[in-house]
Amino acid sequence: MNQTKKLIVNGRVVLPDGVSEVSLLIENGKIKALLDKDTAPETDWEQIDAGGKIVMAGMIDTHNHMADPGPYNFREDWYCGSCSAASGGITTICDMPLPSEPATVDRAGFEWKKDVAESRSVVDFALWGGLIPSSLKDMSELHDLGCIGFKGFMSFATEAYPRISDGYLVEGMRQSERFGGLIALHAENAEVADFGCKHFSQIHCADEACFDQARPWWTEYEAIQRSVLFGKMTGARTMICHMTITQGAEYLRNAKKEGTAVYVETCPHYLVFDHNVLREKKSFAKCTPPFRSRENVEKMWDYVKDGTIDVLGSDHGPYTDEEKVRQNDFWKEYCGFGCNDVMLAAMISEGVNKRGLSWTRLSALTSGNAAKIMGLYPQKGNLMPGADADIILIDPDERWTYDGTKTFSKTKSAKGPYHGMELQGRVTDTFVRGERVYGDGRILCDAGYGKFVKSGTPCL
Known about the structure:
- By secondary structure, this protein is of the alpha/beta class.
- It has a domain at about 60-375: TIM Barrel, CATH 3.20.20.140.
- It is built from 13 helices and 20 strands.
- The protein has a 7-stranded mixed β-sheet, covered by helices on one side. It has a 6-stranded parallel β-sheet with strand order 11-12-13-14-15-16. It has a 4-stranded mixed β-sheet with strand order 5-4-1-6, with no helix packed on it.
- It is globular.
- The model has no long low-confidence stretch (mean pLDDT about 95).
């Protein structure tokens, strides 16, 4: 690796207290110092002119489904998926335990995925452990191996990765509390959501926007309340994944005020699209929890701005076009799509440009808070001296149209929800530990440059 000192100059650097015109000195893959913008570089410093662009800490994607290793890596693998991530400004991927097989539910599954990722990823990565009934006995070991937390489904999941029913969830929370772990939950009432989807399939409902009625907002609300109650009773730290509803956001804001150790993740697509996108894109935009009403989408931004929502995850999980229509029944099709390369551009376009979201708040949502919650701080999630030099350069003025057929992802599609979206703001350069891994529209490092990041002590 090139150990030359680098100095990033002429950028607008996003720091916790605002945007500054300081220069960033990088040495041996770390932020060495923040220097006055007029500091003249020494002869052995490589100068990088940011040209007035935004300079921000690289994103930590809290929610990614790589599908690698195992039989489903034809959808996405660690090389293609991490290249897609790098092109969108993600410098650390937090990968979910499924649908890779074996899932990351024990030491064998953890070590296999870690080995594969280390050989293929171009960005750094952390791993979630699994929370299924059979994995409770392995939680402490997975925590010691460095897992950032444990993902469970309160809704029905898959045969290979079953839901965590209430009794097992409470026991998993008790175990997690003993070693200070983090429980992450897909919060939807399993029976009601499943019943609704089967009902709308049986009546041959032709309006895809009714997915919001099949799995109504209150199925999510009930599961959020239940998870918070269980967390309070056990003392477990809990994260609600991809939260979509303002009722849930208000409830969680109040729970936080009461001192409950609960964190909130949403996805950019829930802040951009409403359920009407399903009428246009049909199953290619289908995801769970469902897209909600436009009124709900607009109100969700209030909770983004006020700090109720802590982090953003892509929920990147592509399927091939053929897979998305294999049942010939919208209500039975797979849920999920690829999006890790467009999530930041969507947040800049819809948040910073249209709704006045500050760059500091955006950086906290996409990087700082995740690092603190998941025990990756201060190594990750900031641009202060001593941190890894995970840095992205953003041209906030560039206008462009997202083309899902030109993604670095292994699955390319012209049918996903973001395809054809007009955007303003684009990542031009991505640095991981001081090395430029993406720039000029190309991947600039070899497969396997990315390193595993072990979770440490959380500070949020």
